[in-house]
Structures are given as C-alpha cells and as structure tokens.
Design a protein that fits this description.
By secondary structure, this protein is α+β, with helices and mostly antiparallel strands. Helices cover 23% and strands 29% of the residues. A hairpin with a 2-residue loop joins strand 1 and strand 2.
Length: 82
C-alpha cells in the first residue's frame, strides 16, 4: 500500500518476530529507505521510550535493517535498500 507516497509492505516473518520480541504478531509493517539517515530520522519519530526494538544492524543485503514496536504498539521493519 502507499501512504504519503511511501510504499508500506506487509511482512509475515512470524517466527523471527516471536523469537525477537516474545510476542505473536501475524504480520508487521515494513518500510524501505534510501539512506541510513532517512531510516534513523523516521525511527526517531516513532520509537517508544522503553525501546522495544531489535538493534539496527548492517547486513550483506542492507546498510541498515531492524525491527521495533512503536509508541502506538505497531511492529515495524525498517530497511535501507541499495
């Protein structure tokens, strides 16, 4: 789906999410970004004070990727795409 001209994807990585967060989400929302700075700026707007997040890390397929539960209790996956 498109929200404010930004593609928003649904991700069904159920086992990963349950293992990482100890909660059972059927799906979560995922956003892609062009740069790590864009990702971190968006994260700063949505993050919770108690930091329910998997650390953002660099991988072989992304400069920065991670998951977190936002202040509205929504689970997100963020990833920089090259």
């Amino acid at each position: 789906m498109i929200i404010h001209e930004q593609p928003v994807y649904l991700n069904d990585a159920k086992n990963f999410i349950k293992n990482a967060f100890g909660v059972d989400f059927a799906t979560h929302l995922a956003l892609t970004f062009d740069t790590p700075d864009q990702l971190l700026a968006c994260y700063e707007l949505l993050k919770r004070e108690d930091e329910l997040s998997a650390p953002f890390t660099e991988t072989s397929y992304s400069k920065l990727v991670g998951n977190f539960i936002d202040k509205f209790n929504i689970l997100w996956g963020f990833m920089v795409v090259d």
